[in-house]
Specification:
single chain; 158 residues; mainly alpha; 0% strand
Length: 158
Amino acid sequence: MAKARRALIEPDLYRRDFYSWALEQAALLRDHQLAELDLDHLAEEIEGLARAEARELRSRYATLVSHLLKWEFQPKRRSHSWTATIARERGAILDHLDENPGLKPREVELFAKAYRGARADAAVETNMPLSRFPAGCPYTLDQAMSEAFWPGPDRPQP
């Protein structure tokens, strides 16, 4: 009965005030009032959380690859900042996968999807034409994640 009453009083809370809806759903979960939950929207939001974790991994791959491209295609502009970003992203990717092991089967797919954005970013950041960068990723996932891999001549010193 309470569910029907709530539906009449707040039928569009999810769309009108997501913040309040989310707090309400959390309170209902904590109070074990499962019959009162907005299950369809709750399921959507949980799926959205999973998608966000995948987007985070893809974004980190894109940042890593764009810096590897800059490193390779603009060797005279190499900086400690690029070295730090490459090292930081490698570590953050490993941490993200440790925290979300369910993403491991999607690593290769997300790495491949990241390349389009990485290529575009590298072109903008280097002021080089997009066509200067390969249409397909020139690095394997294992190469990109290897601390020993630095494309082109002159590896950085540890």
